[in-house]
Write a structure and sequence with these properties.
The protein has a single domain, classed as Rossmann fold, CATH 3.40.50.2020. The protein is built from 6 helices and 13 strands. Strands 1, 4, 5, 6, 7, 8, 9, 10 and 11 form a 9-stranded mixed sheet that branches. The chain is α/β, with parallel strands linked by helices. Strand 4, helix 3 and strand 5 form a beta-alpha-beta unit. The structure holds 1-O-pyrophosphono-5-O-phosphono-alpha-D-ribofuranose (PRP) and uracil.
Amino acid sequence: MPIHEIRHPLIRHKLGLMRRADISTKSFRELAQEVGALLTYEATQDLPLESCEIKGWCGPVEVEKIAGKKITVVPILRAGIGMLDGVLRLIPSAKVSVVGLSRNEETLVAHTYVEKLVGEIDQRLALIVDPMLATGGSMIATIDLLKKAGCKEIRALVLVAAPEGIRQLEQAHPDVTIYTAAIDQRLNEHGYIIPGLGDAGDKVFGTK
Ligand code: PRP
Ligand code: URA
């Protein structure tokens, strides 16, 4: 499974701001969208193009457009919503499939409570967005259900990934590419990423 840690200075700077303990909900939201957009830029670098002729100001002109596969963005609720607008800013016509998962705080096992996938999922590239890849359980469960629905090409965009989650995902879904703004040190005894961002869902929604 290829993993790309995007070490662009803008991403590193913005992620540094997101790690501050005293960050406001407003700033966290804005930065999650911005880093989401920057990761989207990286994750779509190899999309195929095709030529077409359009009517330009001085007559016919040959231009390029993205060819082939349509895209669905898949935010994992809740925290994935925090990155969604950033992705849609770059891919405004993408359809959105929603997956709702919640980790049990004791067992860390992810439980699915919403699954609303768009049509023709078998013909779409899926870009899953979730700020955190911790144990990997939520991401693996989302990929399992996308594949079950027929999805063949899947990429995952996360703000912070833990080595433990990367290993689990690699074993479960070696064909899925991950784009992350950072690979952090480890998980703590409660399954939180260290140094991480804290509870991303609470920070996006202002619930703590
Ligand atoms: C968080 C996060 C991921 C998941 C990562 O969601 O947004 O979805 O944990 O952990 P994992 O890799 O160990 O599965 P959470 O379950 O806290 O729900 P929330 O987004 O609704 O807060
Ligand atoms: N979920 C979060 O929101 N943060 C973590 O560090 C791990 C899981």
